Amino acid sequence: MAVVMIDAGVFCRGREVAGAVRQRLGAAELTDAELFASAAESSGVAAERFARLLYGPRSLVEGLRRDSPRLVAHLRAAVAAVIDREPAVYLGGAGHLVPPSLTHVLKVCLGGTQEHRLAQGIAEGLTKREAQKQIVRDDELRAEWTSSLHDSGPWEKTLYDIFIAMQETSVDDAVELISSHATRPAVALTASVLHAVADFRLAAAVGVGLADEGHDVDLACRDGEVTILIKHHTMFLERTQRELVELARQVDGVRTAVARPGRQYREPGISFDMELAVPSKVLLVDDEQEFVHALSERLQSRQMRPAIAYDGEQALAMVASDEPEVMVLDLKMPGIDGMEVLRRVKRTNPRTEVIILTGHGSDREEVLAAELGAFAYLRKPVDIEVLTATMRAAYRRVEEARGGSGED
User: Which residues contact 364 (CB under 8 A, 6 or more apart)?
Assistant: First the structure.
């Protein structure tokens, strides 16, 4: 009998279906609380942080933190530790961490049209506006999670064994469909599947070891032979490969290890599409060091190489020595605040486009920033894609000004 893992959109009757399937199969309940507690114990990170990783709400700082790959690695190891428990039913997003090789895991998605989910939300006592807000928030978080793992959205049918459109299916019919598939021989916990479980656990253990040392990689394992797939470009590829292999070999059960660039690994290139062109000189100004470093890392993955200043005085000195094309500027900083930095930069370096990014702004300050020449005024938390698009738009204005002035 299978381990059933159900991922359900909000207002898609997930709890009802999961509970009924569990009762029908006489199965145990595998919960997020159990997985998060296990991951928290191994990582030293609070269980609530794992809950926010999957379901939010997250601040911008959390969304950009460099320890996210580490959290994913520890959560994957927690899943691997219980994945041969059967029969069991799980409802949540952690099922996306289970590889396709574990054929005893039946992955199910409960989805529904916008109209159906709105109607269900209203039936549960919410207003239409409240239901819409929950649907948008849930879809965004689920999309961020599945995209980070699979480069695809949560409604991609290839991620699941069974995809059920709840606008066309009753709870009883969904339970019958899932239960009938969960008892088929194809999803039995056979010896070969147990072997795949052992491979998954070893890969997860290696993943924890590498993530704890700051590495974000993909892994595959077969019979103690570990393949490490490097995701991010490095100028020191051979040294990185040696380090990864040495770390992997320290994990009990690893017989051999190799490291090589994976499918996501790309040599840096130059884009000549102005819609995708990014500034070559970016300055980030923010006194929250953890935030600004995490933001810098995310921008580096988008072909930008930002410089960083931690206060207004340092920012003005850097502008004077090497004019940036685009500046992302916080307002509340010790010493010279962001508004004064904006005022001085637009006076001395008018071609630098300044994007205000603040968590403490006001409508009055937004008006003042516009009057002083700010290109845009964004509030934290901001989606990284929104910020990147704004920076590209600012850079297009810089390029247009260069063209109009006759400069090369």
Answer: none
